[in-house]
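SAMPLE LOG
Freezer: B-3
Tube label: C17
Construct: single chain, 474 aa
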Amino acid sequence: MAQTILGRQEEKKELERLYRSGRPEFVAVYGRRRVGKTFLVRELFDQRLCFYHTGLSPSELDEGQLKEQQLREFHRSLIAWGGHPTSVPSDWFEAFDALRQLVMSRPKGQRKVLFIDEMPWMDTPRSGFVTALEHFWNGWAAGQAQVMLIVCGSATSWMANNLINNYGGLYNRLTAEIHLRPFTLSECEAYYKANSLMFDRYDQIQSYMVFGGVPYYLSLLQKGKSLAQNIDQLFFADNAKLRNEFTRLYRSLFRNADDCMTVIRLLAGRREGYTRKEIAEATKLPYGGGLTATLRLLEESDLIVSYIPYHASQRQTSYRLTDFFSMFHLTFLDRHKTNNAYFWTDNVGGQQLTAWRGFSFEGVCFAHIDKIKRALGISGVQTEVSAWHSDEAQIDMIIDRQDRVVNLCEIKFCTDTFIINRSYDAVLRRKQSCLEAMNRKRKPIHLTMITTYGISQNEYSGKVQAQLTMDDLF
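STRUCTURE (predicted):
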């Protein structure tokens, strides 16, 4: 029996629409590793699948027989789903022809859903896989109204280059693309409730700072344990399951994994990120196409984001790390070495964790900008959202609105209501002064506080035009 699929409402609706379209469909489902692509497709279609196959991880195969081992496993899948190939295919043309015969043997008039998972792994060097896939789709499947081919892959760069942005035989052949992203805070909350994980919203946000809403990581949390205990068990205990996940993640996603990790390590050191020129100078990676391609792949994989700082030119485009898991690993496992199996529990109130929470909470807010706009009553207003810093001041978030207002957002993660005292009031006045100096269109500036529990009312709080709490992010 299929399990309940939490969240993913839009993705489920789109897949069901494609299932009932009455036309041949070629659908690519892609996204970050561990984000739940396989689970979504398998559970949604369950008994409706006509064929399912998942590629073998090349890291687990004999390098000299990659193609043969992939073909052998594909042969096993054909048999498991009712095919009758006489022998293991000698190449991918034979393999896809055997798949065609399997589909044709099924009753006419019913939808044939073919699901091929981890497709990038199947495209081993000099295997001719992509050419055979092109021939299968263009030469036969595209003319079969009952065929729905769904392909998945964690190697987002392969999916982008060979399917989404293909300019060869598969150019413009995809009928739909579904980019599956991590859960939002509200989807995580539904997951915790469904799995009897008793975390309040303060801890749920901290969990998001660690796991970033990636379903697989959430599945490792154990009920009956506090968040701190779970973090210790997953990262710091002996044989912790996620201690080496950072390297596994990047090596499974990218062929130039070392270059990608070099860039990520750099971006983790500055909250507002770096320009492309700064990245090239700091990493010594070639400034031309190589770095451009690496940054594009990282962005397509939902690990970084590019943005133009407030009132800057396009040449000043900056790149900022957005993957919470990577940031957590680099902060506490890459730079900080410890043998303390209870590191998190022992330091839960320490300065290092407090600083990390403040930085990471800003990332949570950027990841939920749609919720912030809704709370401000400007969901339908066109906006540009960025961070800004100079030698004089740093502004956590600027929302430049088409309705001629600029929100200067201060973001604070704290254990109680936040108090604006005399010294912090001076900081806010300096930030507002800096923003006014850049505000060429003379838009009104609304000081906006985004905190966990709100702000205390005193003689300095009156200038705050709007305040949001962590509840608004859900």
